[in-house]
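User: Okay, second chain of the day. Same drill as before: sequence in, structure tokens out.
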Amino acid sequence: MTVIKQSRPRSQGFTLLELLVAIAIFAIMAALGGISLEAVVTQQAIANENYRQLKSLQRSVQILCDDLYQLQPRGVRDVLGQNYELPLIADGRGMYLLRLSRAGWRNPAGFSRGTLQRVQYRLNDGALIREYWPVLDPVLAMEPIEEVLLENVALVKFEFLDIENAQPEWKPVWPPLRIDASDWPKAVRFAIEIDGFGRIERLIEVPG
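Assistant: Same drill. Structure tokens below.
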């Protein structure tokens, strides 16, 4: 009698080499996926920061325009109550870029105060700062309330249109350095340079 031996089926599992190759491929794909995810997150963070800076720039330009549109010919006494400051000052020698009196100070809470406001702008370590005083004529030791409008600012420049001479001129300071200088320019223009956004310019016709 012939005995037929049945052969056992060959194992269908993976060899060690195949497993090592599969693990290596998986590791490479995981690394590439991690790099791609990190790049997406980084780009999203950059986009969010650029959007935040753009919104800040738009808001700052709007606030500056509002202040200049609402210029008022109301000078103020200094903190000692002795000397008189002009309604608009920009001489480049002080700690501020521009100081002015403006109307339209909103009062939604109904505080006992007027609608005129004394405002100044200054640049400090690349930050454009707007400050105002709680009262129009500040008293001794009264500190202004400040708000940082913009960061990473490279330049803020103001110029004032003087029409008193035969030939109108743009002046870098106000009032102009002449005896017959008027208290009021015809227009004000300003430029802001900020990293990543270039130069923004606006021209404002002064009321009155």
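The two ends are 126 Å apart (CA to CA).

User: Thanks, on to the next one.
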